Each structure stands twice: as C-alpha cells, then as structure tokens.
C-alpha cells in the first residue's frame, strides 16, 4: 500500500477565532461533493505548504460525524512549537485551497460500553466534541469532565454545558476547581469505559489512578499526539533508495525521508499507530526513541525506529527504506 | 439486464455450472507453480475490465441462485447470521457501502434513491423495492447486516476494532470453508485463526493483523485464499460436516474432473466509517477441475501446486486422502512446459 | 494438589496462571472443588484487609465440606458455599449487577466453572483480559457439539458421545469463550460407522 492516507482536496470555508489561543477551521470539498462520514475520535492530517516545506499535522475532527457538508478542526496556537499551529493561525484564510486526509480513528468509542466517562483537558476537548455528537444521536450514556485554565480559555465549554447541562462538568484552574478523580472513578457501573485526552501529565495521572483503582487496561482509552521533538541534526543512509539525507533541527526523520522523495508509510505521525515502523540495518550511536509504539525490548534492540517522532545521535544510521 | 442469471442449485442435484465466460474470469489464485502462506494483501482497486476485480462487489451469473441458496441455509439454521448488540451501527455502515457501490457500478440492476434519511432501494434481479429510514432498524424486515447480505454474494464477517485487535462480533456465513460463525463469534483475530496450521509460527497473523488495523476509509484491501470441495457445495459448514463429509468417499479416478472443485475466496477488507469496524467480505468462487484445465496454464500449474503442497496444508484443506487421485487426474494436463508468471490465462 | 500444567496448544485454547492479588475496591472469588486451594494460596500472599472487601463463592462438588471451614476462616465479607454451579448462578448474577468498576474477579477450579463464570463477568462488562483464572482439579472438558449445538459436560474421553444428539465427536482444542466450551466434531463424518476406540485423555 502506498504511503499515508487517501487525500481530499478542500477549500477553507470559515476561519473562526474561538478565544485568545484557539481558532476553528472549516473545510469543504473543493469539488462540491460530500465529505466522508467518520466515527467520533477520528483525526485528519492537514497538509500545509509552508514556504519550501510540506508540513503534515494531525488534528481531531470536532464536527458532527454525520454532517457530510464539511469537516471542522480547532487549532491551539503554540508559539514555541515547530510551526504548524502558527501556520494555521497566521497563513490560512477563507477561500484557500488545502489538502486533508480521509479520517483515521485511533481513539474510537467502545460501543459495548454501558457508560462513556470522558475526561478532557484544554484543547483535548476536540475529539470529545465529535464523540458527544455521535453519542447524542445514538442515545448513548456519557459524562464529560473538562478541565480548563480560565473561563476565557474554556474552548466550547459554554456550548457543551448549554446542550448537556447534566452531563457536562467544567473545572476552572484559576478558581481552584479540580477534577476529584478518585471520587469520580469510584462507584462507576461495570461496563463503564474511561476516555482521556489532554496534556501529557493529565493522561498519565488518569491512567495511573484508574490502574490503582483496579480499572482494566481495556476500559481506559487515551489519545495523545506527540509532536516530533526537535534536536541535533543528523545524517541517515536510506539503503533501499540508496540516498543519504540530512535531518534538520526542527524536522522529523519522517519529514526528511519524504523531502528526499522516498515513499514512506504513515498514519498518525505521532508515534502511536505503528504504521511508519522502519527496520534499522546498521548504526553507530544512540537512538532517541519518543514513540508509544515499540516495546522497550524493541527500543533497546537497535533494530527498529519510528521515524515520525524518534531521532538519532551519533556517527551513522542506515535504514531499510 | 446485462447478466443472464443461472437457474441452478448448490446442493442435492448440484446443477451449478460456469459458463465459458465465467471460466475465463475465474480468479485463479496461484501466481507461481507452488504455494505457501503469505500476507498477500493488495489495494482493492478496480482493474482488468470484466474480471472479478473490476467492481467493489462482483455480481455474476450465479447471483440469484446463490441468494436462494443462502435463504435455504438460513431457514435451516438461523445461527449462520448473528450480530452482537454493539454491531448494529456497523451493519448500517455495510448497508450504505454495498448499496452505494452496487447502485453506482450496476445501474441497470440496482438503484438507490436517498432523500435525507429516507432511502429507496431497488434490487431488480431479486425483485426488491423497499423504502426505509437509514439508522432505524424498525423500518427493515431484518437487521441491517442481514438485510443487505441476503442480497449480496459471499460471506461477511464484521470485525470490531479495539485493544489493538480485531474481534469477529457479527457475520453472515453460509458459504464457508468449514468454520462456524456460531462458535467463532466474539473471538479475536488470533483465536479465530487458531486452527490454521503453520501460519502462526511463520508470524503471518501478527503481520496481517498489523496491516488490517491500519486499513483506512476509502482504501480497501484484498487477497485470495483457496481450498478444494467435492461437488459445488457452497455450504461446507462444520454444522453440516456429517452430511457432506461422506461425499469425499465418492471420488473416483473417473469423476475427479466433474466432482472436484477448486474453491477460491476473494477476500476484501473495508474500513467502515461510522463504527470504525472492518468488514471482511469472503466471496466464494467454485470451478470444477474439468473447466479449470480448459485454460492450459492453469492445468499445468494447479497440478504442480497440489502435488507439492505440504502435508499439513493438504490435511487442513481437507483433501489429503484424495490427493493421489486428484494429482493423477491433473497430471494428464501437465506436459511439463514452463508457465508464465501471474494468474491470468496466456 | 498443585496447579495443572496445560500443554501448549492453539491460540484459542485458554491458558491459566496463578492467581495474584490486584489492586481493587472489591474482590469476587469464584471456585469449584479443588479450586479452593488456589484461593487459600492467594490468601497467603494477599495484603492485609484483602478479604474485608471480598466475596467468596465456592462450589463444593465432590469435595463436600473439605474446604468449607478453611475458606470461611479467611473471613471474607461475604461467603457462600453451594452444591453446584447452577445453584450459584442467581447469586453470581446479582453480585455482578450491583458491582462497580474496580471489581477484581478471580476464578479457580475446573475449566467448566471458570469458563461459565467468565461468561457472566464478561456479560456484566469486565473484559476477558482483566479476569484471572487458575486451573485446579479435574481436566474434564465442557464440549459443544458443532452439529446439534448441545453442550456435554465433564467429557473425559476422545471421541465421546454427544449427550444430546448421540453423534460420536472428537475433541478439538478450539475454544469459544462466548460459549465457554470446546468444539466437538463428528469423528466418522467422512467414513460413517468408522469410530475409533475412545481414549481417556482428561480426568
């Protein structure tokens, strides 16, 4: 199979500032046709032609999965990031032609659940927006607990609370409100599934607390896209295509492979899905594994790397690509 | 209509026949003169007009007769179609996938008219004209998966995706190569493949699962699988094994060409959008050896494959005892000449 | 009696391991006959207070009162000792109905008992992978006849006679958790009447 996902040519229909940090973008098909339906929790990969380079960033779809007229995403501006969110905030305008991928879901609802218990932090609210619309249409049983910094930065909190006053609970950091997680997890009926999306620390806290309270691993779902870490530039030899490439400081290994015109598979570009797993033929140096995919044994074996998020420091690295 | 549908049976008097056109388009599964398991998956894209790969769901001259056979099997044993409660949404996904594909690719046979959630579905070969509300089970005579798979050739397994595995949580299975949906429903990918010899040790299933978990919307995949069957029996189920197993004794050196059939499964895989499940259609094509060897390349190659197949595989595929007779018969069609690569007739 | 060793087989054939205490708000322990020994062994390594939140269900079967007092001596919050699995089912279902996430389920004893109790726990919403099971006692199998769908309990020979339709079936290792049974298939399907002598494979 060829690399990546099926592509859709789209036009930016709306650019809507939501608050100081978050802007919403709506894409419609440039040919006027319907968008694919999707399942709540799915993301799309947005292609950005930023000067000479192509950025491919995944964003959760937050619109109604059954709405075929367009896709909506919300992007939080990250001034210290690698530049994708800044590009979205500063360069993307209404009427612009862009390319997005078909939806991919790595954070889907477990439809067997008796109850869906959702925990969101900050911009981690976006996948839940779509899941809640899907569950509402199916008369699903859900409850959302959403932590925000301030009321002014509480992306979509008012809308959610107005639509689902008994199911949605908002916690404001600046008012000293915090999710009482132990109490929340205690007394949930058997068959409840727990979902968490938010900052790394929150995900770790929720998973650890659930585990300590005896929640089965299969009932705890999380979504965390890792942004590729920046690091020292390094050189890589691609054995199959017989090329030597340079990976820049703010570039991922996957991006460098693509820039060299070599077809490499990918899906999530965030170290989670496993699609870009690449065999190492030889190396002299040390791997900086940043993914959630490889096992610890694989990471220490020196035989595998996930080029979407992981890096290398040392003399030589030869990949089977 | 562009297709003349056969009036034929897949049991009892076994009047099933392939027309010369059907023989020419038969999906012969061996690209080379030997066979071993592999993860032989490729994109399910349309190619070779007239071949079974041209359409998303191939409809051929056996369509009407196969659907009658399915109805007969279901009347005998309703457990051949089951869907665990959380799979209803995936059933609707399948309704949409099949109806839109068939209406677009066979406009003279099928029509779909959508007015919001009100859908009208016309199936001319089966004489069906139904109007229903999409996502409302009470407006269909069966559950959504059962409704549409009573009108589509091939078995269907719907696989729920969770915990980095696939779970066979729904299916319509009446044309199977000896496995029981009633027994296997609810199993994960490794469990329902457990009885397959050798492939686990070869790591085939680990690699295949990884691939399948990443199949995406709009990018279906396909592969071929095969076995052999005495008589053109679609329903070779374990449930009825005590009824068809004894037929294997009826094979003689004289009737091999008429009685022995190569059974090929065109397996496709589609990501379903609303449920994030995968649907796994398993379409069965049968051809008697007499017809198969009318393509000289296939006769030569099939003789070599069956002759050299490892014992475990011939046992698993259920023809180990009859292999000498089959090989003897096929050898008459193998002059030892080299064969060209690929599956197509020369 | 110590734990049973299960010969490695195909991927659908369940494997078992020693019960270990896991963190949880409540603990449900279900065992039959010698399965009681697995609970007693668990008690030796369980943290103090473990049984304050435990419900022990023991199906005596042929062991009669052998284990009753020792199990009661663990002082579980709830204790039930009953004659058969069927008699215990209403209690088991009622317990699961009122249970919450965080409940740990421990099963011990025969495959029939563990398989059926696992069905109930899974129905109630606990993933299979989160349910612990340790085999003790009889290795007799619970078999489904693939032809008539009837279940035959306590099968010790291969082939065996289906207690419902009377066909002679051979014993497969293919196992369905949904049915809590191994699969039995007619042994003389290809050669009717040619039935091998039954061999005792399980006891």
SSE order and pairing:
The complex is a heterotrimer of chains A (321), B (346) and C (203).
Chain A: E1 7-17, E2 22-29, E3 42-50, E4 53-60, E5 71-76, H1 84-91, E6 97-101, E7 104-105, E8 115-121, H2 126-137, E9 142-148, H3 157-163, E10 168-172, H4 181-185, E11 192-197, H5 200-212, E12 220-223, E13 234-238, E14 243-247, H6 253-259, E15 278-288, H7 296-301, E16 304-305, E17 311-319
Parallel strand pairs in A: 8-9, 8-11, 9-10, 11-12, 13-17
Antiparallel strand pairs in A: 1-2, 1-6, 2-5, 3-4, 3-6, 3-7, 13-14, 15-16, 15-17
Chain B: H1 20-24, E1 42-43, H2 63-76, E2 81-83, H3 88-105, E3 110-115, E4 118-123, E5 128-133, H4 144-149, E6 155-162, E7 165-172, H5 181-184, H6 189-192, H7 204-213, E8 221-230, H8 241-244, H9 256-259, E9 260-271, E10 278-288, H10 289-292, H11 296-308, H12 311-316, H13 323-331
Antiparallel strand pairs in B: 1-8, 2-7, 3-4, 4-5, 6-7, 6-10, 8-9, 9-10
Chain C: E1 26-32, H1 35-45, E2 54-59, H2 68-72, E3 78-82, H3 85-97, E4 103-109, H4 111-123, E5 132-135, E6 141-145, E7 151-155, E8 157-158, E9 160-161, E10 168-176, E11 181-186, E12 199-200
Parallel strand pairs in C: 1-2, 1-4, 2-3, 4-5, 6-11
Antiparallel strand pairs in C: 6-7, 8-12, 9-10, 10-11
Helix pairs in contact in C: 3-4
Domain Dimethylamine monooxygenase subunit DmmA-like C-terminal (chain C): 142-185
Keywords (chain C): 2Fe-2S, Flavoprotein, Iron, Iron-sulfur, Metal-binding, Oxidoreductase
Pfam families (chain C): DmmA-like_C (PF22289), DmmA-like_N (PF22290)
């Amino acid at each position: 199979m060829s690399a990546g996902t099926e592509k859709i040519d789209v036009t930016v229909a709306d650019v809507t500032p939501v608050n100081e940090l978050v802007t919403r973008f709506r894409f419609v098909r440039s040919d006027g046709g319907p968008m694919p339906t999707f399942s709540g929790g799915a993301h799309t990969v947005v292609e950005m032609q930023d000067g000479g380079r192509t950025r491919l960033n995944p964003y959760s779809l937050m619109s109604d999965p059954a709405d075929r007229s367009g896709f909506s995403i919300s992007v939080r501006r990250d001034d210290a990031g690698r530049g994708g969110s800044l590009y979205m905030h500063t360069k993307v305008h209404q009427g612009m032609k862009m390319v997005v991928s078909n939806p991919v879901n790595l954070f889907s609802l477990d439809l067997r659940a008796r109850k869906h218990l959702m925990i969101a932090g900050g911009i981690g609210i976006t996948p839940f927006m779509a899941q809640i619309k899907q569950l509402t249409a199916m008369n699903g049983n859900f409850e959302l607990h959403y932590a925000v910094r301030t009321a002014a930065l509480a992306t979509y909190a008012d809308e959610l609370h107005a639509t689902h006053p008994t199911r949605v609970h908002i916690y404001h950091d600046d008012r000293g409100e915090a999710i009482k997680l132990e109490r929340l997890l205690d007394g949930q009926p058997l068959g409840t599934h727990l979902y968490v999306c938010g900052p790394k620390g929150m995900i770790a806290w929720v998973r650890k607390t659930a585990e300590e309270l005896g929640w089965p691993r299969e009932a705890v779902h999380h979504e965390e896209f890792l942004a590729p870490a920046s690091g020292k530039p390094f050189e890589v030899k691609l054995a199959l295509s017989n090329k030597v490439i340079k990976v820049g400081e703010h570039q991922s290994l996957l991006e460098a492979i693509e820039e060299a015109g070599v077809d490499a598979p990918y899906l999530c570009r965030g170290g989670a899905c496993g699609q870009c797993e690449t065999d190492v033929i030889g190396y002299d140096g040390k791997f900086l594994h940043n993914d959630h995919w490889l096992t610890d044994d694989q990471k220490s074996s020196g035989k595998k790397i996930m080029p979407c998020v992981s890096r290398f420091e040392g003399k030589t690295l030869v990949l089977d690509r | 209509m562009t297709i003349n549908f056969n009036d034929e049976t897949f049991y009892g008097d076994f009047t099933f026949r392939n027309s010369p056109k059907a023989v020419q388009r038969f999906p012969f599964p061996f690209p080379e003169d030997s066979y071993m398991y592999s993860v032989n998956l490729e994109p399910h894209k349309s190619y070779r007009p007239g071949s079974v790969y041209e359409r998303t769901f191939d409809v051929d001259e056996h369509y009407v007769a196969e659907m009658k056979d399915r109805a007969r099997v279901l009347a005998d044993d309703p457990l051949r179609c089951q869907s665990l409660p959380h799979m209803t949404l995936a059933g609707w996904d399948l309704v949409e996938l099949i109806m839109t594909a068939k209406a677009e690719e066979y406009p003279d046979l099928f029509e779909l008219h959508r007015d919001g959630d009100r859908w009208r579905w016309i199936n001319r070969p089966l004489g069906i004209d139904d109007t229903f509300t999409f996502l409302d089970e009470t407006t269909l005579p069966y559950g959504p998966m059962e409704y549409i798979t009573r009108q589509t050739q091939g078995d269907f397994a719907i696989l729920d995706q969770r915990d980095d595995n696939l779970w066979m949580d729904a299916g319509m299975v009446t044309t199977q190569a000896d496995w029981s949906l009633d027994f296997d429903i609810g199993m994960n990918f490794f469990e329902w493949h457990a009885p397959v010899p050798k492939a686990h040790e070869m790591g085939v299933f680990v690699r295949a699962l990884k691939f399948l978990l990443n199949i995406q919307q709009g990018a279906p995949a396909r592969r071929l699988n095969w076995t052999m069957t005495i008589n053109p029996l679609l329903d070779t189920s374990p449930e009825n094994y005590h009824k068809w197993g004894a037929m294997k004794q009826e094979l003689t050196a004289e009737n091999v060409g008429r009685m022995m059939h190569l059974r090929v499964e065109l397996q496709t895989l589609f990501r379903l959008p609303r449920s994030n499940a995968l649907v796994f259609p398993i379409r069965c094509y049968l051809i008697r050896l007499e017809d198969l060897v009318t393509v000289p390349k296939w006769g030569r190659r099939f003789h070599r494959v069956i002759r050299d197949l490892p014992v475990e595989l011939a046992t698993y595929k259920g023809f180990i005892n009859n292999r000498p007779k089959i090989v003897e018969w096929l050898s008459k069609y193998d002059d030892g000449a080299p064969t060209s690569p690929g599956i197509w007739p020369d | 009696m110590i734990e049973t060793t299960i010969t490695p087989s195909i991927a659908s054939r369940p494997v078992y391991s020693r019960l270990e205490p896991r963190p949880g708000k409540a603990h449900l322990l279900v065992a039959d006959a010698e399965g009681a020994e697995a609970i007693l062994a668990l008690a030796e390594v369980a943290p103090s207070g473990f049984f304050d939140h435990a419900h022990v269900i023991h199906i005596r079967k042929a062991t009669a009162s052998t284990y009753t007092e020792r199990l009661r001596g663990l002082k579980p919050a709830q204790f039930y000792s009953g004659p058969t699995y069927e008699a215990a089912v209403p209690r088991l279902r009622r317990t699961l109905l009122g249970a919450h996430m965080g409940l740990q389920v421990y099963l011990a004893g025969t495959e029939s008992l563990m398989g059926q109790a696992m069905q109930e726990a899974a129905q109630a919403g606990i993933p299979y992978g989160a349910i612990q099971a340790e085999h003790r006692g009889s290795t007799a199998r619970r078999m489904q006849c693939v032809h008539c769908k009837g279940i035959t309990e306590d099968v010790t020979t291969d082939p065996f006679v289906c207690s419902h339709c009377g066909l002679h079936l051979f014993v497969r290792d293919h196992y369905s958790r949904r049915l809590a049974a191994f699969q039995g298939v007619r042994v003389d399907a290809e050669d009717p009447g040619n039935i091998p002598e039954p061999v005792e494979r399980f006891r």
